[in-house]
Amino acid sequence: MKPAPFELSQPGTLDDARGLLAAGDADCRIIAGGQSLGPMLNLRLARPDRLVALSALPGLTECRETESHVEIGAAVTHARIEDGDCPEPIPGMLRHVAAGIAYRAVRNRGTIGGSLCHADPAADWVTAMTALGATLLISGEAGTRREVPMRDFMQGAYRTALKPGEILTTVRIPRYSAGARWGYYKICRKVGEFADAISAFVADPETRVCRVVFGSTGGAPLERPALARQLAETGAAAPLDEIKKDLLAAQSDLSPVKLQQMAIAHQRSVQEALSHD
Ligand SMILES: Cc1cc2nc3c(=O)[nH]c(=O)nc-3n(C[C@H](O)[C@H](O)[C@H](O)COP(=O)(O)OP(=O)(O)OC[C@H]3O[C@@H](n4cnc5c(N)ncnc54)[C@H](O)[C@@H]3O)c2cc1C
Predict the structure, then answer these.
(1) What is the CATH number of domain 7-53?
(2) What sign for the dihedral angle of Cα 187, 81, 237, 133?
């Protein structure tokens, strides 16, 4: 099927992009890599009058680093992250996550910002960025800016804290110390597919940060502090039964199969972390 007719605008500055979104004379929609929006247009699940493309906005296609943070522009593609074009806040994690998304043709176009804003529960970045404690920088009407922690950004399946007309500009990730460890394990039927279960953790003994997060839960990623404490104190994942009990306490509608997949993903994320040295 073909999309319903629309106009395509390619603004050269963030102000122009915001102006187009705020104009109010048309149903406007942002397009980044088009890897999620494209199929929705083709199926006519979305029928905007105008698409505002972000791919030519300089600030959104850059990666920056400071002593304390790494900043990734929202329009940076998965492929650039896979290729090591962005600094790592903890060695190897971003490249590992990016390389496991879909296949190269999707990664060449799909962007980190598009993935976060689309908020598919089975997507990779929503879980990875929650584990990394990222903050999202958002630009709104008349140049207003606000910052939203990743754990508050995704509010459910395909629901985010974005307000109409707002643009996600930057993903800011804190840097971790040299002794920090990470794990990321994705269970899917075939390499390159969306996940059946994801478990991610980041543990930094220097700053005493430890987060254990589960993805592909049907909604927003699930952070599990008790499992993080167990990991920080013992250096090992909890036994399968304890992981399942903890997950069920957080989300009672998880099926036995899903629980098993998530518990196994957590154990493997911890086992595989030992091989990152
Ligand atoms: C075959 C296939 C397999 C895939 N497998 C995986 C997978 O295994 N794991 C995974 O994580 N993903 C997967 N994806 C999704 C892929 O990662 C997409 O790139 C991503 O979901 C959307 O990114 P995009 O840049 O293409 O966004 P688009 O499709 O352009 O936009 C998606 C949505 O976000 C909005 N948006 C985009 N950018 C911004 C912004 N900066 N500010 C505000 N709103 C914005 C758009 O308006 C739209 O609503 C797959 C996709 C395909 C087609």
Answers:
(1) 3.30.43.10
(2) negative
